[in-house]
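re: ur question from earlier - yeah i can do the single chain one, its not a big deal. heres the input i used so u can compare w yours
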Amino acid sequence: MKFQQQQSQKQQQTQKLAMTQQLQQSIQILQYNTEELLTFVESEALENPLIEVRAPKLQSDLMKSQSPASQDNQTIQIPDVQISLFEYVMNQIHLNYRDTFLRKIVLVLAESLDLNGYLRVDEAEVKAQLQASDIQFLDGLTLLQQLDPAGVGARSLQECLMLQTERDDNAPELAYLILEEAFEAIANRQFQQIAKKYQLSLPEVQNILDYIRSLDPFPGASFGDNQAEFIIPDLTLMRDGEKLNVVSNRRGQLKVNFQTKYFERLSKEADEETLQYLKEKQQRFQWLEKTLGQRQDTILTVGEIIVERQKDFFLNQSGALKPLQLKEIAEIAGVHESTISRAVNGKYIETDFGTFELRQFFVNKVNNEDSSADGIKLKIKEMIDQEDKNKPLSDQKLVELLANDGEKLSRRTVAKYRENLKIPSSAKRKRFD
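and the output i got, formated as tokens:
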């Protein structure tokens, strides 16, 4: 009796393991883009003679930003994620910022980015060309530097590392300040001097330096020129006046068919071992067909929610996107945030004014570009004029004080405004008399 119970337990454990493997594959399938999915399904077909794969036909010409209705049911293709840094930055500008004078400044600055992501431009020349004030130029530069990849738009290595540190919530507490005030000491490996100045132990300094070494000095280098790799949009946006409808782009999706006649013919003549093999392959096909359907349903659901939340953009594409996070979509869809992440990476939606990757519609809230920079600068100057000179206000403290006053700015923006006012850093303002 005990032996039978042990045998039963062993069988249950085996079934649980098999289910876990299928679950892992289902998660991978959701994450695959069209090309990766095709590779996976074709590998399944090689191992399963009962599966027939009908892959979409890729066309050699590039048809980007054309109306789906005008293409007579042809499959729209766009380059895979291997796009240039310039294109990546330009897409973000058009998606995030409204058509204002500040966006014009950002666009001009983006044209002067080198392949490593650094800004190589004569600032005086740009100001004269656009007839922009110092404040307007600074605001435009700040908007550029808020884009991805972190560090883009930097004018020096020091600024590049500071931009990355500012956006990293896990950065060591004093990393930004040390980069700002002791960059030359870092370069000259004056570790004891840094430790003494910031009242740190040498191991703490070493930890900060290790972090700084982990930053990317060439944030744009990972991008390349467009390659002749194409993908097919997963979704299509149909627009009828103010009504928006998202549908699966099934005409371009790969399809799997079960070879029923072949299965029936082999089953009639099969021995017990062969019959068991055929049933296993049939079950594998059923799982694959179901998983592919669930994948497309998940992408469609996520696409519908995104379009609803970003409705203003799709109705008037010149507008900026609203702040949107993965967590919000996950709560609406009733799934885990990681599922949403997998469902948007490498998945595209075609519209009558362009084709976009779903993940591009997730944006963090940026500084209000319509805020009065002059007014904010005046507040900063007043705060610094009234500070205790023995304990001057750091840029982070200024951020907190401004937030209490209803002005939400990043530390880097406050630092830029302070620099524009020609006010030195807190360390240089400190007096001991």
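The chain has three domains: 26-55+230-361, 85-214, 373-429. not sure if urs matches, ping me
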